[in-house]
Amino acid sequence: MAQCVQSVQEFIQDSFVPLVAALCSEEAERLTRKNNLGFSELVKPFCRLTSEVHMRDPNNQLHIIKNLKIAVNNIITHSPQPGGIRKLLNDVVSVSQPAEGLVTNVITAGDYDLNISDRSVTASVPWYNNWKDTLMELNASTFYSATTPWFEAYRESFLQSMPASDHEFLNHYVACMLVVSSGEPEPVEQFLKLSQEQHRIQHSSEYAYPKWFIPNTLKYYVLLHDVSAGEEQRADSVYEEMKQRYGTQGCYLLKINSRGSNRGADEQIPDPWSQYLQKNSIQNQESYDDGPYTVISHKNADHLIPDGLDNDIQVDGLSNNFKAHPLQLDHLSDTSSSFDGTDYIRTTSSLHESKKTSSGTPHGACLTLTDHDRIRQFIQEFTFRGLLPHIEKTIRQLNDQLISRKGLSRSLFSATKKWFSGSKVPEKSINELKNTSGLLYPPEAPELQIRKMADLCFLVQHYELAYSCYHTAKKDFLNDQAMLYAAGALEMAAVSAFLQPGAPRPYPAHYMDTAIQTYRDICKNMVLAERCVLLSAEILKSQSKYSDAAALLIRLTSEDSDLRSALLLEQAAHCFINMKSPMVRKFAFHMILAGHRYSKAGQKKHALRCYCQAMQVYKGKGWSLAEDHINFTIGRQSFTLRQLDNAVSAFRHILINDSKQPAAQQGTFLREYLYVYKNVTQLSPDGPLPQLPLPYINNSATRVFFGHDRRPAEGEKQAATHISLDQEYDCESSHQWKELEEQVVAVVNKGIIPSNFQPTQYCLNSYSDNSKFPLAVVEEPVTVEVAFRNPLKVPLLLTDLSLLWKFQPKDFSAKHNGATKELGCGNDMIGAEVIAEFLINSEETKLARLKLFPHQTGELHILGVVYNLGTIQGTVMIDGIDPSIGLQAGKFVYNGMSVRGRQDLEIQGPRLNNTKEEKTSIKYGPDRRLDPIITEEMPLLEVFFINFPTGLLCGEIRKAYVEFVNVSKCPLTALKVVSKHPEFFTFGGNTGVLTPLSPSASENCSAYKTVVTDSTSVCPALMSSASSVNFGLGTGSQPEVIHIPLPDSVLLPGASIQLPMWLHGPDEEGVHEINFLFYYESIKKHSKMCHRVLRHTAVICTSRSLNVRATVCRSNALEDEGKGDNMLVFVDVENINTSEAGVKEFHIVQVSSNSKHWKLQKAVNRFEDKDYKLASRERGKLCFKAVRCKNSGENYTFADVVFGNEQIISSASPCADFFFRSLSSELKRTHAQSNIFQGAAKQSFDEAVRLIQKCSEVDLNIVVLWKAYVVEDSKQLILEGQHHVVLHTVGKEAFSFPQKQGFKKILGNSDWEDLEQESPEMVLLKFFRPENTSLPTRPTPEQLSNLIKTSLHYPESFNHSFHQKSLCLVPVTLLLSNCSEADVDVIIDLRHKTTSPEALEIHGSFTWLGQTQYKLQLKSQEVYNLQLKACFVRTGVYNLGTHRVFAKLADQVTLFETSQQNSMPALIIINNI
After folding, report:
1. Hey, which residues does 1272 pair with through a beta bridge?
2. Is the pTM of this model over 0.70?
3. Cα distance between residue 980 and residue 1074, in whole Å
4. Separation of alpha carbons 1098 and 836, rounded Å
5. 1418: closest CA among 1304, 1271, 1275, 1255?
6. Is the dihedral of CA 952, 955, 961, 962 positive or negative?
7. Rounded-to-integer distance, Cα 1044 and Cα 149, Å
8. pLDDT by residue (tens digit) across 654-675?
């Protein structure tokens, strides 16, 4: 139970006090009425004695009475009506609420901190956490107990209002005060009249009420004297007469009203009466006869609705949901004997009126502090001299009567031990006893005399004697089976045993249990049973037996009185929380039960408080159904009490949690919420829009798109893909677009990216960089995609859905700020799209795209969304609702009910993690995707692709057209396109004749520029030259950025232009995504937005065509041209097409070379028919002779070897375009590889090593041009294409595209990774650490062997007559050619002998004559002839290549000296003539 102000002993003593009746004359009543008080009210604050009192028991032992209190009441001759008692108790509980402004009481129970008894609902309602703050302020170790003043007030009023009964005498009057005014003509006669009246009331049969203790009631005569108006001498004389007549012990002169009625305003006299008078007394029966009370029978209604509310709210608007309450107790069938069968609820207005009248009237206005002391002295005199001697005398008489009747030799008091120590008679069980509750004893029955004596002893705190008498009476009553009397004796025996000083015996709780069961089950008297429970529970609580007390309180809850059940359940809940190991969940459960019964009893505020306190336990524990029930009830009770904000919050809490309720119940919750919300909004229609809880908005998923929606393709036209909200975000792709834009911006700004550069972001989401304010263009829509989620199982209908925004106009060109425009102020500045209806089905996530149309420059802030929230209209959901939910079908269907509200879009930025402070704390950066800056008008480009293929052969050249359209009102310029794959497309070079502009493809229309050649059998290569500058690839430029040739470099508003575009199929088969970024600017320079971009992603599927590989090696033949060097180029062409594309055969129509230093001269193994066909899986080998170019300038020399009748001019577009683009990408790839693998080693090479390396390098590029014949739809098409092979090194094989088998060393890393990704086989993951070691500074022998090229010139056969001359001398010329660009020292050693026996056996031995070692120095590119002589002694075949050549650079010592590789065999035949 909750903590009480009084101790249990004080509570019981004050509950049973001697009753004194007061009978006043009219004049005496008038004197007291001057103070707005009756006589009994006048003395009430002074009825507790301040000093100890002594009396003697029947054994003449002195007995001390402490803290005695008496009760003085007016005589009322009719018993109180049950309805009046019920009204009194209900009002007492209603008026007593938790005090406002006090420190909240907090109980710490286990893991819970519970806020108890807080009038301010906001501190304990679950959606407020103020109680946590309160806890922080309080000392956690201090135990704060909870008080329930309404329960104490109820208990006090209940005990005071109990009607007197015949089976006990505690409520019977012991004495009677007769009060007469000294101002009456004959006061003594008036005393006689009053005495006769009292005698008539007590002894006449017509008055059954009030009850009197004994026939000879003590009469005490009080003369009331008005000091301010009466004559004091007369009063004294009358008092003297009274003393002679009634004795000094039986009368008293009480002087009051020492002041006049015109008291000074400045004097403050204490008012001790107010605290008593606020508690309405049961004696004032008249005040309960009439009054605005609503009486509702429990038989007809399960719930109560107070007056004062709108009619539509009472029944239809908030129908009761308690018919099948999930926590409801079972109904008890028998409620016949209770006076609580009907609950009376006083209206709130009448309660307030009664409080005002009681508190506003001053009491004791004519009394001074001296008068207060006189009244206190009067009560003490009456008690000392009149009441207690009378009670002592009565106890003696009763004791003597009992002794004489029982025939005992000594007094009852001394015989107590004998009675109790003897053998006990086994008490019968209550169930065995027959129902004899109707048995009545005559007043003079000895059993009643024992009970009467026991009650008197109990009233004067003689508990030991009282217990003896109660125990004796109990035995007698049980023997007579007078169960009502026995229960009364058992009840008081238990209380007496508890109150005995020194606790000689334990509290007999079983006595109380038996009494309660008897009262309730046999006597059907719930009032007496309730009194038993209240007393016993308080006693058990004082002994810390909270579990027993709780069980006792719960046992008495029944359906006959909701108020009593609510109060007892609440006290049981407090018992659970006060246990040594607090049972918090039981506390919460019983608080719910108490709240439910409070609600049925009409105590709405108490019901709300109980539910709020229970919610502290249930919330956050995952018990969603319990939380929903509590919140639903809190919402209803708050609505009934007109606490609309709390009601809205409670219903909101139901909706925003992931509810596990069925759909029908959720529909009920939602409709209740909408109804309550509508009432709230009607109170303040002009207030700010409220925040709505539904539907959920995933703020981080909000996306913002700037610009118009993409136009669909029209026929052959395919619009640029650009970007839209339908595309998913790809981090890698986004990074690529950013790199492309940075690339083109750097080119435009001469290699430097401006400091204020901001990458263009058309679509902002949670992955994009939102730290800067995005830029939007005036007159172009801003689309916001909001992700709504409906957590309920019922559909939500949003109507009039639009964005909420704030706009601040600014003229960025004039640099001045305008005034801020709030919502609704500037619809001419910002146009907003409104979605009329937006339906979100149950548990659905749905995206809404809302647009704004800015018409003026400035700063736009998108704040949130505004909409009407409602449910769909229909009867399907309503008819399917389970009636147990309590929804009255047909009464609660709102036709299109909706409420207007808003939800803010508040997006949390990314967590900052850069500085140490940010890493150690939690800080978030800004997210400005909803705060775009509206800039000045900009041009807007649309791009369409015509005849753009989706499939190509590898290396195929295809011609398409691109249409550029300016759809804005501004001219655009500086149109460029940038791509990571510039080798894929070209718009043509600056020189050369463009091919005919024809969008239609035909078999005779070639993409190349061709010239007819003559058909001579041997055709040398045709020469031409071109510069890379002509194809946009000059020095310092980036090949990825391509300038698009617009007429006059400007595209006017509304204008469109078509340009040809050549495409080159990628060399690798598969699907390729190629990104184009079109860059353009406005003619006018803007401060905010400098340029715009348009994105396009082309998807091309390529299939296999030809595989080309080439090798270059030095020719051993020395030409007569002197310095002219020559090489052989071997080209292998294989048809690897799988005929999937319908290709029949490939024709090699031309092989061209491009180089600054080399050129193809002729084909060595040329076919006579000049037709070079390759069917599927066929391979052809071509051999060409290459010579050095004479003009080694910056221009590239193009040499074409034609195999047909038409020469394709390889130095013109598009052939040269794709050659230069592939060359630049090849150079870029090798450059990247050298950066990766050489790194620091590159710096360690000195010039000498570079010169040696350069000797083995050859920059020769081969272009193989082909045609393929394709049959498609019974029509033959001619496809054209070209493959490139870049030859870097002598003797090293090069390929047109990477191979998958065994060519990883030749490939670049990126290409090989691409191939491996395409391969379906699993590849083991290898971990390696790249070692940054320097490459060896010594060149390889292979590189050194290329420094000097040697060639022996000699006759193939030599005839000699050995008979004439035994020695044969043959002249041999050794040609030494310096291939490097530096001076080379050469050592020729002729002493080398072949040691191999096989060589000797085959070739024989010979000798060089003359000088055996030569030291020469060859200048750059010098050719030197060395004349030698070989000596042979016999015929045979000899190998002249036995010489050794050593070479080193002239300025080096021995660092690079190494032997040259053995020359190729130089065989000579020596014949004998």
Report:
1. 1275
2. no
3. 7
4. 38
5. 1255
6. positive
7. 90
8. 777 777 888 888 888 888 888 8
